[in-house]
Specification:
The protein folds into 2 domains: 178 residues, no CATH class; 38 residues, no CATH class. It is globular, with a radius of gyration of 21 Å. The chain contains 2 helices and 15 strands. A hairpin with a 2-residue loop joins strand 1 and strand 2. Strands 1, 2, 3, 4, 5, 6, 7, 8, 13, 14 and 15 form an 11-stranded mixed β-sheet that branches. By secondary structure, the chain is mainly beta.
Amino acid sequence: MKHKISSINWCLGAVAVILLSIWCLNVSASTKIPKNSLSMIVGQNQINFSGNMKAIIEKQDNGATRILIGVEDKEQRAELFLRADIPSWDGQNSKYIQTQTHSLMFMLKHENGSVFIIPSIQFARDSGKKYVKKVKTTGKSVDFRKVSPDWVRMTKSERLATGRGIIRNQGMEGSSFFVMIQPVVENGHVKSITGTFSGVANMGHNRFQKGEYVNIMDGQFNIEVRQNAIFK
């Protein structure tokens, strides 16, 4: 019986993820809120932040662009953190990212509870390390060679199909997060970022709403970038 209830809850979460993804695809990244402000609805709670926040944009060694957004509100005893790694981004155009396809993390600490979302499936990174494999040669001879893991040569689709080279986080099943980002660029620098976001978190104990899933809706932000990368 417990297994059936868990399956039903997982299905409800999956339905919520599908509906949220459709909603996000039709949302513009532009916002009408003042600069250095962020707002959202979490469960049945409207949450607004203003003032004490910052955004950082960095270029990673692998060529990806990392966006960091941090917010702290001592009056509400709340903190928010968002981190997104975007591969092959020109820093000029809007970008839609989600936990199903990108390295994306969302964290909210609030007096009504906490929300934490990361991808339920992550792709392992090739560290360059090799392991020793026994290889049969001609006749009865055996040779030992250093080889890379076979999943290094697989596509993401192949890794998902075989289950090799992936990391599963069962605690995040049914959770998802979506962000649409629009940069404001001047002289090759991203001066500020605006955007919209939504999600659903399978995090259980909180006072945002009843049930195992917490919905995040109508999220939007307009934040000045304090540290940024130069896009060429």
